[in-house]
C-alpha cells in the first residue's frame, strides 16, 4: 500500500504535469470505486487543475474555474488503498471507457481515466480481487469523513514530541497500532511503522504508556527522520518507479529471513490474518522472539 512518502511523491509528480491544464475528459470505468454522486465526475471537465496535494494517504487534485475562484473549487480525491495506483501517460487514450459494475480481475483494472487538454493524463487502476480504491468528487475535502478525521501530519510543524506524547498517553495500546491509526497520525501504514520502530529500536508490541520521555523523544525522531528520508528518496521519481523504490529502501519490512542491516541478526516476522510485521529481535526486543499471532490463536 502506498504510504505518506510515495503519496507525497505521486502528488508532486501529478502536480508538475497537470497543474495549469484543463480537464478534457474524466471517465469512470469501475462504478464501485466512485463513492460520491454530487458533484458528478463530469463536473471536472472544462475546469483547470490548480494543483495536486496530499492529505495523509489521500491525493487531492484541485480544480477551479477559469477565473481561479477558490470558493468554487471541485476536488478529485482518491485513496489508492492496497492495490491502487495512478499511471501517467504523455498521450492518454481517447477511446471510450466502458463502465463496469464489479469484477474479480487480479490484474490492474482501470477505475478512472482523466485526460487533460494537452493530450496527457492518468489512469487510476487497481489490482487484485479486493477492490478498495476510493474516488470522491467533492467541493471541500472535509466532506470526506476519512479526510476530516485525519490526525496530525508527522511532517508538519504541529507534530512535536509533546504532541506525540499526548497521543501516547491518551490510551494504552501497542505502539505499532498507534503509528498506523490515521485518526492519530496521518500517513503511516504497515511498512513505515515497521521501519520507524526498527530505527527507534522498539518492540512493535510495547505499550504506549510505558514509554519514558526519552523514549518518546527517540520515537519522534525516528518517525520524522524515516519519513523525511523516504520522501527525499522518492521525490522526483516517475510514478512507475515509486513502488520499486519503496521496496528497495526498506530495512526490515518485507525482508523476513534476510540479515538486519544494523546488527546482522535475521529479520523475523509476526503474521496476522491479513497482514504481517517484520522486526529484528536483537535491535528491538532484547533478543526475544515474538509469537506468531496466527499460531497463538490456533493453539488456544
UniProtKB/TrEMBL annotation:
<dbReference type="Pfam" id="PF06827">
    <property type="entry name" value="zf-FPG_IleRS"/>
</dbReference>
<comment type="similarity">
    <text>Belongs to the FPG family.</text>
</comment>
<keyword id="KW-0227">DNA damage</keyword>
<keyword id="KW-0326">Glycosidase</keyword>
<dbReference type="InterPro" id="IPR012319">
    <property type="entry name" value="FPG_cat"/>
</dbReference>
<keyword id="KW-0456">Lyase</keyword>
<dbReference type="InterPro" id="IPR010663">
    <property type="entry name" value="Znf_FPG/IleRS"/>
</dbReference>
<feature type="domain" description="Formamidopyrimidine-DNA glycosylase catalytic">
    <location>
        <begin position="2"/>
        <end position="103"/>
    </location>
</feature>
<keyword id="KW-0238">DNA-binding</keyword>
<keyword id="KW-0378">Hydrolase</keyword>
<keyword id="KW-0479">Metal-binding</keyword>
<dbReference type="InterPro" id="IPR035937">
    <property type="entry name" value="FPG_N"/>
</dbReference>
<keyword id="KW-0511">Multifunctional enzyme</keyword>
<dbReference type="Pfam" id="PF06831">
    <property type="entry name" value="H2TH"/>
</dbReference>
<dbReference type="InterPro" id="IPR015887">
    <property type="entry name" value="DNA_glyclase_Znf_dom_DNA_BS"/>
</dbReference>
<dbReference type="Pfam" id="PF01149">
    <property type="entry name" value="Fapy_DNA_glyco"/>
</dbReference>
<dbReference type="InterPro" id="IPR015886">
    <property type="entry name" value="H2TH_FPG"/>
</dbReference>
<dbReference type="InterPro" id="IPR010979">
    <property type="entry name" value="Ribosomal_uS13-like_H2TH"/>
</dbReference>
<keyword id="KW-0863">Zinc-finger</keyword>
<dbReference type="InterPro" id="IPR000214">
    <property type="entry name" value="Znf_DNA_glyclase/AP_lyase"/>
</dbReference>
<feature type="domain" description="FPG-type">
    <location>
        <begin position="251"/>
        <end position="285"/>
    </location>
</feature>
<keyword id="KW-0862">Zinc</keyword>
<protein>
    <submittedName>
        <fullName>Fpg/Nei family DNA glycosylase</fullName>
    </submittedName>
</protein>
<keyword id="KW-0234">DNA repair</keyword>
Amino acid at each position: 500500500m502506498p504510504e505518506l512518502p510515495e503519496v507525497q511523491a505521486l502528488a508532486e509528480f501529478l502536480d508538475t504535469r497537470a497543474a495549469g491544464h484543463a480537464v478534457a475528459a474524466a471517465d469512470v470505468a469501475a462504478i464501485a470505486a466512485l463513492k460520491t454522486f454530487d458533484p458528478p465526475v463530469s463536473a471536472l471537465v472544462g475546469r483547470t487543475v490548480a494543483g495536486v496535494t496530499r492529505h495523509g494517504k489521500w491525493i487531492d487534485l484541485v480544480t477551479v474555474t477559469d477565473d481561479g475562484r477558490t470558493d468554487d473549487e471541485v476536488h478529485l480525491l482518491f485513496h489508492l488503498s492496497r492495490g491502487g495506483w495512478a499511471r501517467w501517460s504523455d498521450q492518454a487514450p481517447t477511446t471510450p471507457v466502458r463502465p463496469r459494475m464489479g469484477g474479480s480481475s487480479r490484474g490492474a483494472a482501470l477505475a478512472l481515466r482523466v485526460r487533460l487538454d494537452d493530450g496527457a493524463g492518468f489512469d487510476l487502476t487497481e489490482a487484485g480481487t479486493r477492490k478498495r480504491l476510493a474516488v470522491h468528487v467533492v467541493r471541500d475535502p472535509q466532506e470526506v469523513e476519512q479526510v476530516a478525521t485525519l490526525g496530525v501530519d508527522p511532517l508538519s510543524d504541529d507534530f512535536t514530541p509533546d504532541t506525540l506524547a499526548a497521543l501516547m498517553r491518551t490510551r494504552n495500546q501497542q505502539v505499532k497500532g498507534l503509528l498506523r491509526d490515521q485518526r492519530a497520525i496521518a500517513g503511516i501504514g504497515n511498512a513505515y511503522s515497521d521501519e520507524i520502530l526498527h530505527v527507534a529500536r522498539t518492540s512493535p508490541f510495547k505499550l504506549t504508556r510505558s514509554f519514558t520521555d526519552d523514549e518518546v523523544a527517540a520515537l519522534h525522531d525516528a518517525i520524522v527522520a524515516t519519513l523525511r528520508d523516504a520522501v527525499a528518496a522518492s521525490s522526483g521519481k516517475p510514478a512507475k518507479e515509486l513502488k520499486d523504490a519503496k521496496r528497495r529502501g526498506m530495512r526490515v519490512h518485507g525482508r523476513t529471513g534476510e540479515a538486519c542491516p544494523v546488527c546482522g541478526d535475521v529479520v523475523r516476522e509476526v503474521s496476522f490474518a491479513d497482514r504481517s510485521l517484520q522486526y529484528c529481535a536483537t535491535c528491538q526486543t532484547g533478543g526475544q522472539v515474538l509469537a506468531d499471532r496466527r499460531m497463538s490463536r490456533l493453539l488456544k
